[in-house]
Specification:
Strand order of the largest sheet: 1-2-3-4
Shape: elongated
Radius of gyration: 13 Å
Structural class: alpha+beta
Helix content: 40-55%
Distance between the termini: 25 Å
Order of helices and strands: EHEEEH
Mean pLDDT: 91
Length: 94
């Protein structure tokens, strides 16, 4: 799975990049047919936003999260993506 990271008003540091890659392994473990993911991290005043668009075989899954901390926003984002990926996988198997 190819991961593209973009930062708006925030620098993507190596620890932040490693944290995102570590969290996205869980999604790849649940669904092997994910081709690529594009993550956008944004800071606006006191809000830290994380958005992701995941391309899977035959579909596109999008999620976003807004939190007070960037790491919390990434955690919430990966939880939402994981739920959507599992739901998509169940639809395919049914």
């Amino acid at each position: 799975m190819q991961v593209n990271l973009t930062g708006h008003h925030v620098e993507i540091t190596p620890p932040l990049r490693d944290y995102i890659n570590e969290k996205l392994v869980r999604i790849e473990r649940h669904f092997e047919h994910a081709t690529d993911i594009h993550c956008i991290l944004t800071v606006e005043k006191l809000e830290h936003k994380a958005e992701a668009t995941l391309n899977v075989s035959g579909n596109t899954i999008h999620a976003h999260s807004v939190e007070a901390d960037m790491y919390a926003a990434i955690d919430s984002l990966t939880d939402k993506l994981d739920r959507q990926v599992r739901k998509h996988k169940e639809k395919i198997t049914d």
